[in-house]
Amino acid sequence: MKIYIKNTDCAPEVPAGANLMEVLRSAGYGPDAPCGGNGVCGKCKVKVNGEEVLSCRYAVEADCTVEVSRSAKTEVLTAGAGIRVPVEPLKE
Question: What pTM was computed for the model?
Answer without folding.
Answer: 0.73
